[in-house]
Amino acid sequence: xxxxxxxxxxxxxxxxxxxxxxxxxxxxxxxxxxxxxxxxxxxxxxxxxxxxxxxxxxxxxxxxxxxxxxxxxxxxxxxxxxxxxxxxxxxxxxxxxxxxxxxxxxxxxxxxxxxxxxxxxxxxxxxxxxxxxxxxxxxxxxxxxxxxxxxxxxxxxxxxxxxxxxxxxxxxxxxxxxxxxxxxxxxxxxxxxxxxxxxxxxxxxxxxxxxxxxxxxxxxxxxxxxxxxxxxxxxxxxxxxxxxxxxxxxxxxxxxxxxxxxxxxxxxxxxxxxxxxxxxxxxxxxxxxxxxxxxxxxxxxxxxxxxxxxxxxxxxxxxxxxxxxxxxxxxxxxxxxxxxxxxxxxxxxxxxxxxxxxxxxxxxxxxxxxxxxxxxxxxxxxxxxxxxxxxxxxxxxxxxxxxxxxxxxxxxxxxxxxxxxxxxxxx
Length: 427
Description:
There is one protein chain. The chain is mainly β. Helices cover 8% and strands 53% of the residues. The strands form seven sheets. The chain has a seven-stranded mixed β-sheet with strand order 2-11-10-4-8-7-6, with no helix packed on it. Strands 12, 13, 15, 16, 17 and 20 form a six-stranded antiparallel β-sheet that branches. Strands 14, 18, 19, 21, 22 and 23 form a six-stranded antiparallel β-sheet that branches.
């Protein structure tokens, strides 16, 4: 006799088995293959609070094959007092110009996720390199040493982070700092700290500020904080206008990468004022970004300070990686003269050439002459910015009179500047 209850139990068991199998099969398309990590290092591995270490790991496909959807991961773990912060960036891995995966850096991990194009690639070998900021914020005035760990497959690295002892002391009246934040790695944050001891002043405070090359001040990013006799803040794209409206005696003039700030005595006395803003990074090959600042002020019953320099810098942050040896790139230039071997004696002794990245100047101009056979190669250039390839170009500065210039690209990022003498224009 047919037993409907037994049949339903059989069907339920079969469905559960099929569902379970489907989940396992699905997981195989997104498998962690971190066992393929062959080395993991951090340099340096002993930091002071706020210092940066460079993490480098290498991988291949010898431990297990790499398939579409597979992921390599490096994680860093600490506690609420001692930890590492990654800079949020990403880049593509390419073989012969075809993307096979993406490197992404997060606050507490780095991942490489491979796409469908990896399916026909054998003997995969590559690396990744990225910065981590070490923090030790242990709530004590005493010196403290702690650590956090990096993990990648079977590899691990211990990173020590030291916090110096702190003693109460009077701060400088003014200082300026710059940094690239871990969650905002494409901009530099500059911060002005004014009247840090909340002293009374006899006159207005006058500050000049000049953001230097490779970055562009964004006037919509100013934040202004006042604490002391007054507690107030102005944030958002209208912060500067709202600040000036609230305090009519304030002068805050912005022009390009420069600004001038005048804080009247009535507002400056007894108040600490912090002003921060962002500058968009334009030259990703630049190693350090600079900012110049000057301040004039007089603390009550003290000697006036006139245009004292307080300059600041911020180190650039980049990630790098390669697969089958790719990752960074190079650009070459070759100067060719089409003037019948300088028949008219118009050829200059040398020429100056500027390299451009995405249409903007990068690095210093170079000189081509007979000594270097009119050739030059830029090495170790950034290959990608935010996952997009950098478009490099070259341009000669001050083209000689009576010469017509033609710039061609005979291979990927190999430029030829041909100079043809214009016979009819010869004098």
